[in-house]
User: Fold this.
Amino acid sequence: MKSRTDQKQHRLRRAIAAASAIALSTACLPAAAEHAPAPDALVTMSIEQLLDKEVYGASRYLQNSSDAPSAVSVVTADDIRHFGWRTLADILRTLPGLSVNYDRNYSYLGARGFLRPGDYNTRFLLLVDGQRTNDAVYEQASIGTEFMLDIDLIDRVEYVPGAGSSIYGANAFFGVINVVTKRARDLPLVQVSGAAGKSGTTKGRATLAMHDDAGAELLLSATRYRSTGADLYYPQFDTPANNNGIARGLDHDLSNSVFAKGRAGPWRFSLAHSERTKGIPTASWGQVFNDPRSGTRDVQTSAQLGYRDLLSDRTELAVNLSFGRYDYQGDYIYDLPPVSVQRDGSIGSWFGADIKLLTTRFTGHKLVLGAVHAVDRRLDQYTYIVVPYASSLDDHRRGRKTGLFIQDEITLTPRLLLNAGLRWDSSEITDSIVNPRLALIYKPRTGTVVKGIFGTAYRDPNTYEMYYRAPAPGGQNPNPALRPERIRTHELVVEQRIGQSSKVVATLYQNVASNLITQTYDPVTLTSTFINASEATARGLELSLDQAWRGGARMRASTSFQHTYDTATGSHPVNSPDLLAKMNFSVPLGRVRAGIEAQYVGPRDTLTRRIGGYWIANATLFSARLAKGLEMSASIYNVFNRRYADPGANEHLQDSLRQDDRSWRLKFTYGF
Assistant:
C-alpha cells in the first residue's frame, strides 16, 4: 500500500501531467484540420457526444437528451470558459426561449414570453446537483451574483423547458434548471483564479481537489467577488437636491462564497454558503435618491447528505437528506419625515428527506418511484423603522410539503418510447394536487426524433406574497386568499441530424396559465398587493441549430418566435418580447480560442409604453497554453457599446432601466 506522501506525490504528478497535456494540445494548427488538437473536450468528444449529451434534470436519472421528455439544452464548462460568462444569468440568457432582466439588484428570468414584474424567479425550479435550492419564504431561484456557487465550479447546466411538476412538484412551472458541479477528479490538486474588470471589479478563487483510486473525492473552494460599480444617471431624479440625478457609488456588489463536495463509496455530501451585499442605486419603492445606506444582503446556506447504491444489478436506491437557510435583509431609506431607515427582512430555514428507487428489472420499462417530505422550520418576516424603533411586521410561520411521484419510460417498440409520469403533492396551501406528464418519443429513422409532450404544473403562493405587510411608501398589503397557479403545456419537438455534425431542433408549443399571481400597485396609497390574475396563453416556435466541427469549432444558434396574451382581453403583457435571436460561435485560432456571441431581444412593453428591441455582442479570447497549468481569458462585453434598457417594475420610478455600457474582464487561472 502506498504511503500518504507517495499518494500525494502521485496525484501531484498526475495533475501536472494532465495540465501539460492540455497545454500541449493548443499547438498552432488550423482549426478546420480533420485531426487538429484542441485545448478542451470539444475535440476529444465525438460529434455524437456533442450533439446528444446525457442529462439528469428531465427524469431524475441520466439519459440521452434525445430520450428525454423535453427539448433539453445543455451548457458545458468549456462553453463557460470560451465565452467568458460571469454569472448563471449570463449562461441562461443564451438558451432558446429564455430572457433575463436586471434591475441593478437582482436578475430575473423569463421563459416563452412570461416575465411578470414583481416575480422573484418563482416559476423556475433551480437545482444544484439535483437538489432544490429555491428558498422557503420567496421561493426565489437566484441566478445573478447572489447565486451561491462560483460558476467556475460548474460542470454543466441543464435547462429542461416545460411543465416539470410531475417529477419535481411545485415551482417547476416554466422549466427546471439543474446545475451540475465539477468533481474533484476533474480538477488539479490546487487551482487559483483571479479576475479584474471595469468599475473596480475583482474576483479571486482558491480550490483544493483531492481523490484516490478507490473513488473517494473531496473538493473545497472559496471565492470572493467585489465591484465598486459605476456612477449611474437617472433623469427622473435630475434636480440639484438629488445630485442632478447621479447615483454615486451605489451600484456596489460584494459576495463571498464557500463550497465543499465529497464522496466515499455510496455516500455523498455537499455544503454551500454565500453572503452577498448589494447597493440599490435606483431609489426603488419611493426611497430617498442617492442615499448610500440603501442596499440588500442575502445569506444562503445549503447542505446535502446522500446515499446511493445498487440493491441489485438492475435496481438503484438513492436517499437524500437536505438542509437550507436563507436570510434576507434590506435597508430602505424614506423621508417620512425625518429621513429614516426602514429595515425589511426574512429568515427561512427548512430541512427535508427524499427517497428514490430506479429499476429496469421489468423488461421494456425504466421505472422511477419516489417520496419527498420537507419541513419549513422558519418562515419569518419582519419590517421596522430602525431609529426610533417602530415595528410594522413581525410574522412567524411554519410549513410542510409532501410529495409522491412515479415515472415509467416504456419501450413500446425499438423506435417508440412512452414516458409517463405522475406526482401527488400536499401542503398547507394545497391540500392535494396531482400533475401528470406524458411524452411520446418516436425515432422513425437514425438521426430523427419526434416528441409529443403534454404536462401540467403548479406553483403555490409563497409566504411573502400572502403575508407580507409594510406601510407606505413602498408598502404592501397581505393577501392570504391567494390560490395556486396552474399551467397546461403542449409541445411538439422535432430533432433532426444533418450529416454527422449538425442538429436542428424545432419546438412548437402552447402554454395556458391560470390564476397567475401578479403584483398590482395603487399610485394613490403607494402600496402594492399580490392578486390572482386572469388566464394567459403563450404560443410559439423555437428553432435551434447546433453545429460541431472536428477541428474544434462549434456554433449554437436559436430563434424564438413567441406570442403571449391575456386570454380574456387579448392584451399583451409587460416585458414580453415576440422575438429572440441568439448565436454563439467559438473556434480555435492557434494557441487561443475565440468565442463570439450575439443576442437580439425584440421590442417589449413597459408599464407605460413600448421600447424598441436591441442587440448586443460579446467577445472572448481564451488560452490554455500560456504556461503549464495556466489559463487566460480576455473578454469584452457589449462590444459595440449599444444603449439598451430593461422594463422597470412597479417599485421603480424609472419606466425602463438602462443596462451596462461596454465593459471588460481579464482572468487568469493556474492549477498544479
The chain has seven helices and 40 strands. Helices lie at 4-24, 41-44, 47-51, 77-83, 88-92, 165-168, 463-467. The first helix runs from residue 4 to 24. The mean pLDDT is 91.
